[in-house]
Amino acid sequence: MSKINVAVLGATGSVGQRFIQLLENHPYFQVTHLCASENSAGKTYADIMKKRWKISGDIPKYARDIIITLPDPKITQGVKLAFSGLDASIAGEVETAFAEAGIHIISNSKNHRMVENVPLLSAEVNANHLDVLSTQKTPGKIVTNSNCTIMGVTISLKPLYEKFGIESVMLFSMQAISGAGYPGVPTMDILGNVVPFIGGEEDKAEIEPLKCLGRTEGGKIINADFKISAHCNRVPVFDGHTVCVSVKFKKKPTESEILEAWSSFKGEPQELKLPLAPDFPILYRQEEDRPQPRLDLETGRGMTTVVGRLRPDPILDWKYVVLSHNTVRGAAGAAILNAELMYRKNLL
Ligand code: NAP
Asked: Which Gene3D superfamilies does the entry mention (predicted)?
């Protein structure tokens, strides 16, 4: 199969940089257009990013000389798919304009996530939600990623929900500063500190897993029917969201049943051997003090959800800790995996 031309919208941001890094030498996608705001448009990517590139390794050669443009589908001729890491203030209208112009969108922004015929896609969790795309009226289709905090949580819940049913979930997040974008949280607010508020985050954490774990019916996605209570906190960690999760099950499993459900969990990305699919979507760490962002973040090239500390919960049934890479598994990596799945299903 030949490569298809893609654009990265919001290419200069935290998520955008990850797209640029992860799309280097991609076997299915060729980046031809990079888009950002009028502050960046007209300059080369290397020029704009010389002080803003914040991830390890150099800016990939293929992207350095591309002239940044505004995110306008009239400019991105020849592009079939756009990965969006746009700020939410602009993402809604721009992504709709691209879809109307026949360019498929895979978005990291919140704007279209809860529309009932827009998949909130996590490739291992709900590949069947792509079925609702045929009910979208625009020639380009919109697919979204979930919020980065709940991406790993939802992956960890998926095999448990399927096998044992879930009644309720409590979660407490410790979220990295890169999750707030660039330049994000001021140093004096976060260094040596914890901020127990992230605007809008708890609302997303309490609803988005329910859509991801939902079922499709008549071209719509019907949410899963349990309740989630979320506490979201910003902590002075650069990358990697850690979440403590407690679960009440419909049919309480044993410890070994939970561990077996996690270790045997695989999805279509693994079956199809998609380029960015980790061998195992979930890895359980046996050590009593893991997972930790510094030690475990790069597991499976940042695409594996690392869980640990499974133990009885005296109020609900079981509790554990989840770590996932917010700009890889929680954003650009998950979006690329979604696009790989769509490519292999001839949906692009
Ligand atoms: P960011 O670092 O602030 O980057 C935002 C991007 O949007 C930049 O490229 C910026 O371009 C562009 N932009 C802003 N206003 C624009 C406008 N009026 N017209 C065109 N482009 C505009 O944000 P981020 O952290 O990458 O997040 C991007 C999106 O992904 C957000 O919706 C966020 O909620 C979501 N998300 C983030 C994470 C994460 O871990 N960071 C994870 C999952 C989802 P300029 O540089 O030219 O201003």
From this structure: Dihydrodipicolinate Reductase, domain 2 (3.30.360.10), NAD(P)-binding Rossmann-like Domain (3.40.50.720)
